[in-house]
Design goal:
496 residues; 62% helix
Length: 496
């Protein structure tokens, strides 16, 4: 509840990317059961809603057979969004009048106009969707950490580090599918841990089913499912009812893939899902740049490296050895999953995620980077270690605030393709609109420029702060947080 409250009160209430628009448009059609007004049966193709990007005479994508699901977005992702849109569409919790932003709020009048023109249903969804799934992920991480016999205090620290000191806080204000898919991954892994301790095939069935939902939400979840499947086979060596356990885990996973084929059939009339990971679709466009440089960049590049944007994760260099001593097989599982993600996205032309805050493709592996730190926390008692952890945690939280306080995508980056200033305009034309200077130098890193803007040209982009005003905003947030923090402190005291 603490995390959820903070996430809502730091949300901007709007989308950032075309990926979010795809899912939201499909979600609205699911929530209202009304097709897009421009849909024509037997003629409209995937992306038909976006004629300015995909002119009908040049759009060669498949013709849709279903008006509601005519989209490239994940159906499960849209289904998780649809209840939010349904609520606001029917009960008008946020209206056009209640979300209106003053023309003087931003220097850029186009930005103000865009904010005010957004569908209030989307504003409501953006305000609560990311915070709910992100905070639920934090809660599940706490439960997962307890399965490794970490103390309540250690588990709480890991959860807070994960929630506020990694990029999870920043991405809590988005509606990207990486947030719910990470939740499903963690929940599926939690039930797998329950299976390990109880040998319950019901826990394994739930694990497989929930991981299947993760796959249907975002297909790169298979990069975790594959090593986990082999890990399960390893665990079955000393258990009874091996075939029953194997089927309990496998059937829902294979069913998820079958569902993905069925969805494609409903959409376009053919079973055309293809391989879960279409390698050819992500490779190319980088010339002779070695894959290993991309893999290095995903962790260490100044422009988006995960360990740069979330300094608390630097602890992996000593936490994994500590974790390995008592959890050897789980450590191998974590490292295998991390390796799968690094190799796959290191091979991609879009390894940088375009203008993502940090390495957004690495979000699903962040829980498995932070969990081993629990072993170090319980092993190392030196005050210098504790101070270092606090410093890294605060630094990561500050980097998140730099992102949350302003619209980095608009004001820092500029407009993709327009080249009218911002990071998109640096060093002339570059592959996928991003200069290597932005990726590989601190001078032109988005993090550097975002910090500069916070102190010199800040235009805050927090929705509830615009709507409520400073006084009421602080008052309501205080009324919510103070009792919750008090309850938490009493709980920890009693537990101690």
């Amino acid at each position: 509840m603490i995390c959820f409250s903070v996430f809502v009160f730091t949300s901007d209430g709007h989308r950032y990317t075309f990926d979010e628009a795809l899912s939201q448009d499909q979600s609205l059609r699911i929530a209202t059961l009304e097709p897009h007004p421009n849909y024509v049966q037997g003629e409209s193709r995937i992306f038909f809603e976006y004629t300015w990007l995909f002119p009908p005479n040049a759009n060669t994508r498949a013709i849709c057979e279903n008006a509601i699901l005519c989209s490239q977005a994940s159906v499960v992702h849209s289904l998780t969004q649809a209840p939010f849109l349904f609520l606001n569409n029917n009960f008008n919790i946020i209206t056009d009048d209640s979300k209106e932003i003053s023309p003087s709020a931003f220097d850029d009048p186009s930005y103000t106009l865009w904010r005010n023109s957004l569908n209030p249903d989307f504003t409501f969804m953006e305000l609560f969707y990311g915070p709910i799934f992100a905070s639920l992920s934090i809660s599940i991480l706490f439960l997962v950490s307890r399965t490794f016999n970490f103390s309540i205090k250690t588990s709480l620290l890991l959860s807070l580090f994960y929630g506020f000191s990694t990029v999870i806080w920043a991405y809590s204000q988005t509606s990207l599918n990486s947030i719910p898919s990470t939740f499903f991954i963690l929940l599926g892994f939690l039930f797998f841990r329950k299976f390990q301790s109880t040998s319950s095939h019901y826990a394994l069935l739930l694990s497989g089913g929930i991981l299947g939902l993760a796959f249907l939400t975002r297909q790169d979840s298979i990069l975790l499912i594959i090593p986990l499947f082999f890990y399960m086979l390893y665990e079955l060596r000393n258990k009874n009812k091996k075939i029953q356990h194997l089927l309990s885990f496998s059937i829902p996973l294979f069913s998820a893939y079958g569902i993905s084929l069925l969805i494609d059939y409903i959409r376009v009339g053919v079973y055309d899902a293809g391989a879960p990971l279409n390698y050819a679709s992500v490779v190319g466009g980088q010339g002779n740049v070695p894959m290993f440089l991309h893999m290095f960049g995903l962790f260490f590049s100044p422009g988006l490296g995960l360990l740069i944007f979330a300094p608390i994760l630097i602890t992996i260099f000593f936490s994994f050895p500590h974790f390995f001593k008592n959890h050897k097989s789980e450590c191998v599982l974590f490292l295998s999953t991390i390796g799968f993600f690094l190799i796959f996205y290191g091979s991609s032309a879009t390894w940088h995620g375009l203008n993502a805050w940090g390495a957004r493709y690495m979000i699903p592996i962040i829980p498995f980077l932070i969990l081993p730190l629990g072993a170090s926390i319980e092993k190392i008692k030196h005050i210098s270690f504790k101070i270092s952890l606090v410093f890294l945690a605060i630094l990561g939280a500050f980097f998140n605030l730099v992102y949350l306080l302003q619209d980095v995508s608009w004001f820092i980056w500029g407009i993709m393709g327009a080249r009218q200033g911002g990071l998109y305009d640096i060093d002339g034309a570059a592959d996928l609109w991003i200069s290597p200077l932005v990726l590989w130098t601190f001078e032109f890193s988005q993090l550097t420029h975002s910090i500069i803007w916070v102190f010199t040209r800040l235009q805050h982009d927090i929705f509830l702060l615009h709507v409520l005003g400073t006084g009421l905003y602080v008052l309501i947030l205080g009324i919510i947080l103070i009792p919750l923090i008090f309850i938490l402190s009493r709980f920890l005291k009693n537990n101690h």
